[in-house]
Amino acid sequence: MSLDTTVVCVWLMSGFDRPLHYRLPASMEDMAQPGSLVRVPLGRRQVIGLIVEKDCEPEVSLMQLKLVLDLVYPTPIMTPELLKLGAWLRQYYGASIQNVLETMIPGPVRQGMKAKSDKYVSANKSVDSESLANLERKAPKQFELYQFLAQQFRAQKKSLVLSRLGASPAAYNGLLKKGFIVEESRKVERVAYDDELGDVEYASKQEIVLNEEQSACVDSISLSLKAGKFATHLLYGVTGSGKTEVYIAAMEEALRAGKSVLFLVPEVALTPQTVGRLRSRFTEHKDAHAVVWHSSLSDGERLDAWMALANGTARVVVGARSAVFAPLEKLGLVIVDEEHEPAFKQDESPRYHGRDVAVYRSYLEQVVCVLGSATPSLETYRNVKLGKYKVDRLTKRIDDRQLPMMHIVDMRIEMMRTRKPVTISSLLAQKLRDRWEKGEQSILFINRRGYNSTMLCNECGHVEECKHCSLPMTFHRSDNTLKCHLCGHEAEPPWRCPECNSDQIRGKGSGTQRIEDVVKSILPKASIVRIDTDTMGKKHLFREILGDFRKGKIDLLVGTQMIAKGLDFPNVTLVGMVDADLSLHVPDFRANERTFQLLVQVSGRAGRGDLAGEVVVQTFTPHAEPIQFARRGEVDAFLEVEIESREQFQYPPFRHLVRQVFRSRNADKAMFFAEQFARKLEARVGGKIEMRGPTPCSIEKMKDQYRFHIWYFTQNVSALMRDLKAVEAEIPFPKDVVQIFDVDPMSVS
Question: Where is the signal peptide (predicted)?
Answer without folding.
Answer: none
